Amino acid sequence: MNPTPPLPLLVVAVCTYRRNHPLRALLTALEAQAASLTTVRLGVSVVDDSPEGMARPVLEPFADSFVGGLRYSNPASGNISTARNTAIETSLDMGADWVMFIDDDCLPSERWIAEMLAMQARTGADLITGPVEDIAHPAAPNWLTEQPFLNQIAEYTDGEEPPYGTTANVLISAEWLAKNPEVRFRSDFGDLGGEDMVWFHATRAAGIVHRYALAAPVFEQVPLERSSFGYQLRKKLWFGNTMYVTNADHGESLNRLFLRGAKYVVNGLLRPVKRLRGGETPQWRYAAAMVAIGVGLMAGRFGVRLDHH
Question: Which range of residues forms the domain containing residue 166?
Answer without folding.
Answer: 9-226
